[in-house]
Amino acid sequence: MKSILSVRFCLSTLAFIGLLQLDRFGAAAVSLQPQIPSVASFSPNSDDSGFVLSASTQIVVDSTFQSSGSPSLIDYAKTFRDDLISLSGFTSLPQVQAGSLEDSHTSPVIFLTLGATDHNYLSGLATDEGYDFVVSSQSYIIKGSGAIGAWWGTRTLLQQVALTTESSDGIILAAGSGSDTPGWEVRGFMLDAARHWFEPSFLADLCIYASFFKLQTFHIHASDNLWDQNFISGPDWRKTNQNETWTKDEFAVLQATCSARGITIIPEVDTPGHSLPITKWKPELGIPKSPDLLNLSHPDTIPTIKAIWDEVLPWFESAEVSIGADEYDASLANDYISFVNDMSQYISQKSGKSIRIWGTNEPSSTLSINMNVTIQHWDFPGDSIPVQLMERGYRVINSEQQFLYLDGKTSDAGQFPVELDQDLMWSGAPDGGGWAPNIFTEHDSSNNTSPQNPLLRGSIMAIWNDWGNNATTPLEIYYQLARSLAVFAEKTWAGSGVRDTQLTRDQFNSIYDTLNAAAPGQNLNRAVAPQPNNILFQYPTVSQPQMSSFDSVGPPYTLKFTIKPTSSSEISVPLFDGTSMLVPYDGGVIFSGTDSKLHVQSLAFEDPTTRIRYPLPYELPTDVYTTVEIHATRNYTYALIDGNTYWWTTELDIWGEYMKPANMSFAAPSRFIRAEGFNGELRNVSLVLGS
Fold first, then answer.
1. Is 171 in the same domain as 236?
2. Is residue 525 part of a domain?
3. CATH number, position 64
4. Which of 81, 175, 452, 680 is the Cys-Cys partner for 48 at CB 3.0 to 4.6 Å?
């Protein structure tokens, strides 16, 4: 072996987990590095120097199984190749081939095949998500129990690449054999996309990021309304948030992108509560003074709901959908239960799909929800007690809010953290061993269940957007989700106290930043390649529209410029007939990019996704030069002007009870300079990484 692998861990961590072992010649042999989620088992082969990944490495798919699965094994392999290029930088990597391991190969081979056996969830249920892998100097063999299992095996390989420093020989991966299986079948996250608008491209990028950590469900909460009881029960309730949606084609592309990376979208259309999107359209279907609740006894209500599902069911590729069904009027329990059972039967007959509902206490002594409905528990003990549900035979998904809820930007009286509480995730259980999908309460073990309970399907964490579009930018939502998804992925794959190989908190922290930065196929961080002195661009004068090399730059950054806006209140706009006309002029846009725009008027940042502007409490003087220095971090953005500090903020309406100010964080609007209609002078423009 020509060189010793350099890894991104401190020496004490290396000593603790034994990453380096001596081979028979006394040289250091490479061993598997901890990753997220942890691998169930790995036996190193110290007699082998390891698999050398290089630009000539071939990816070969077993021709016997190349069409197996949906996506197929060869489809997964092609996506894997793209990701491998992204992580390794080997842009000339050969195209994926179908063949056999016995074929003549000119270089070491990554071989994807099927046939792995004895892969079961902790419940004992067989799964196609498992995989075995055998690594030697000549081959890296990934054998899935299904095509999706082989896909998860490629994520393991990619993470090892990301955590390995390239030597003069290439990227050396540990020789040996391993096996891995997730603990639970449902491992996912929910995004409230009803009370905050998100472009499909952002949702797709979230799928791609989550897949890197082997999550497999994206629950999209697609219909809901902002909550302000005084407003909802008042005369102007139909003026609440605007109804927005994606087109069928946009949703199809989103599903295809997520599916290509092993993630299933579970769509939710929430009724009979949270239903203002319907009653704004048909107000006669609402309960008087509670129009967010559908009147299930009205003869047109259930036919209307079924008609909505008739329209959208053909859009959805998943075997399950969520009908929401939470927080309805407890006095109408029998109506509610009858509705859920009716919808379960109807959706099954129309599409063959089963349904999920949020865990809700239905105080009825005569009716009960059908056992074929999965209960997604969220509120212990207020709305459901999961162990009692499972004792009665219901299948349960754990979304307990104490552990797994976030809210965009902030929450009511600090109820939920900004990101998943790391203390709770690593030690928040009755035995102090950390959260896992079988944990519903922190202090009372009698209300938790066994990891092996066959009725415990898994877990979904949730990020809500209770305060609407103006609370956050999509980038801020990603910042809340990024670490949360990674630690959640570890706990839903490996559990807590189940495997000897599961990560410790220190191990997780030592590798998370590297893996977050390496996650392929997306750039949610809005990261840019290193630049000399961290200077992305620098222009002494910008007299004409200028385009830079950077679409958008994530914080931290410093954007500095000197500006002299014109005092004109009108500008001349040319018309097609050769004449022109005067139109009102608000100063125009100084900078714009994928994620933000900066206007002259009030130096307002605009989120192009929602078209909401966030003004600064400052107005630029006209016909004089002013130097503006904008500093941004993930938590805030502020401007230094003439020795004064001004902050970009927003006002959040908390349940209609009080207003709460909050800081805003923006990506740098870095693509266009003198972007849209700016009429003035612009000098000394620079964008530098770091705040």
1. no
2. no
3. 3.30.379.10
4. 175
- Calculate mean pLDDT across residues 535-550: 96
> By the 8 A CB rule, do 678 and 600 touch?
yes
Residue 221: which domain range?
186-518
Q: Could you give the CA distance from residue 652 to residue 517 in angstroms, rounded to a whole number?
A: 31
Predicted confidence (pLDDT) per residue in 248-280, tens digit: 999 999 999 999 999 999 999 999 999 999 999
Q: What is the C-alpha separation between 647 and 393, in angstroms, rounded?
A: 54
Is the separation of the CB atoms in 254 and 204 below 8 Å?
A: yes
Structure tokens at 548: 């830079």
Distance, in Å, from the CA atom of 359 to the CA atom of 154, rounded to the nearest integer, reads: 35
Whether residue 3 lies inside any domain: the answer is: no
> CATH number, domain at 672?
2.60.120
CB–CB of 274/226 below 8 Å? no
Q: Exposed, middle or buried: residue 31 (CB in 10 Å: 0-12, 13-18, 19+)? A: buried
Considering only the C-alpha atoms of the chain, give the largest distance between any 2 of them, rounded to a whole number of Å: 86
Q: What is the pLDDT of residue 177?
A: 97
Distance (Å, rounded) from C-alpha 97 to C-alpha 74?
Answer: 9
How much is the pLDDT for 469?
Answer: 94
- With tokens 């189940």, the residue in question is 498
Measure the CA–CA gap between 501 and 180, rounded to whole angstroms. 11
Tell me: do 96 and 245 sit in the same domain. Answer: no
Q: Are residues 218 and 148 in the same domain?
A: no
Residues 510 and 553 in one domain: no
Q: What beta strand segments (E) does 390-521 contain?
A: 396-398, 405-407, 456-464
Strand partners for 354: 320
Model-wide pTM > 0.85: yes
CA angle 624, 628, 632 (to 5 degrees): 165
Q: Per the domain annotation, does 1 fall within a domain? A: no
Q: Which of 518, 551, 573 is the last residue of a domain?
A: 518
CA dist 638 and 635 (Å) reads: 10
The residue from 180, 197, 227 where one domain ends is 180
Give 13-16 contacts, CB < 8 A, sequence gap 24+.
13/506, 13/507, 13/510
Are 142 and 215 within one domain?
no
Specify whether the CB–CB gap between 211 and 260 falls below 8 A. Answer: no
User: Computed from CA positions of residues 448, 451, 454, 459, in that sequence, does the dihedral angle turn out positive or negative?
Assistant: positive
Total domains present in the chain: 3
On whether the CB atoms of residues 586 and 576 are closer than 8 A, the answer is no
Same domain, 489 and 559: no
**For the chain, counts of helices (H) and of strands (E):** 14, 38
> Could you give the C-alpha distances from 682 to 227, 536, 539, in angstroms and in order?
44, 18, 9
511 and 579 inside one domain: no
Supply the pLDDT for residue 30. Answer: 63
Record the tokens describing residue 268, joined without a space: 């939710």
Pairing label, strands 51-53, 171-173 = antiparallel
Indicate if 509 and 383 belong to the same structural domain: yes
Q: Which residue has the higher pLDDT, 228 or 673?
A: 673
Tokens standing for residue 265: 């979208």
Q: Is residue 409 part of a domain?
A: yes
Q: pLDDT, tens digit, for every residue of 158-167? A: 999 999 988 7
CB neighbours (10 Å) of residue 515? 18
